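Before the break, one more example. Copy the sequence into your notebook; we will annotate it together after we see the structure.
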Amino acid sequence: MSDTLMISVSGMRGIVGKDLTPELVARHAAALGAWVRQNGGSRVVLGRDARTSGEMFARAAIAGLQSVGVDVIDVGIAPTPTVQMAVEHHHAGAGLILTASHNPIEWNALKFVGPDGIFLDADAGSAVRRLADAGPERAGWDTVGTRSHDDGAITRHLDAILALPEIDVGAIQAREFHVALDCVRGAGGPTMLALFDRLGVRVSGINLPADGRFPREPEPIPENLGELAELVQQSGADIGMAVDPDVDRLALVDEAGRPIGEDYTLAVAARAVLARAPATPQPVVVANLSTSLVVADAVQQGGGRFVRAPVGEANVARTIVAERALLGGEGNGGVILPALHVGRDAPLGAALILQYLAATGERLSAVVAASPRYVIVKAKAPRGGDLNGQYRRLEAAFPDAERDLRDGLRLGWQDRWLHVRPSGTEPIVRLIAEAPTAAEAERLIAKARET
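Here is what the structure looks like once it is written out:
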């Protein structure tokens, strides 16, 4: 793994033209296709976000897949959750999504999806990498795979969201919401506009064309949402919503133009779902180890049981399946409702947020004000040195903390926590802390740096 070619369980990402090349994409697409054939499948669904390198890499991926005798079902530019659902719809052996998610514009990536619509786990991902290293057997002239197009995947996705019992379409329509929307010129513009049109929502939008020319850093974190915050204030919108380039993360801005942090997306979604769920059996909500306590509080107040999983959508998704959870997600704005599909889904998240506001009549600022207050501080450190030694020193420094070693080291207390872990998407170590005040969270980060 180089400084920029990041290889993870379910794929790889890198800088376009430096170490992520059409040759690399074709080889790993062929390996995924060979893995599908080994497991009795014959079809792979392909989709991508709007990055300018996407069409080039899609052509390479199609060639790689066809070269091992796999038929390609191409959904084109579409949200990641749309592609995941299309894998299940077509009973495909796998899915391949070309997206670097929240990474800057110069990056792109391959994400491998299993036949269950969930990103590949460690064993399957290792098997695909071995096939890529060895070079899969290629098809002859008479067994080359075909290519077809699926133009209805996004419509099916939205149909399924609006048919959920958790969503009262009539109640949302009756509120006549006004939403300020920022899609960072990624894949989300057409899908989010179609969703809001069906929900009777008026939209004031920025960065809606799906041309992949991001006008700002694409991650929907508060410091990148200044233009959206201004739009909320200027337009008088009821709420601001921002999605990332592949439309699996949703961030919110309240009606006063304040970005409230991505963790509140899952917290409000949990309140929406738990409000309409039966009390028995006790509903379970799953989130990762770095998700805010505001989510745990929302789940407990709603009568649910809160379970944590290692960071990474695949880890959260498989814990959701194992726990038979009602809902899950991540504190980065990712909402997963297994009744729909087991993957993060920004259009779903948007519908659930509007559902909660419609049902309660509350404004988003009031929802936030009524929640216990915490502050998350996120920092980065260069990767290097002995991380295990640092973990042991931190454990010794905080003997009263509850420790979790499933994903780096997480030290937890009733009203605060510290998580130190190597990133799976960048060559860094992530330091994340949460406490009732910024100063207390900063102290935990400083302790992690000096230990």
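The chain has a mean pLDDT of 96. The longest helix spans residues 22-38. Try to locate both features in your own notes.
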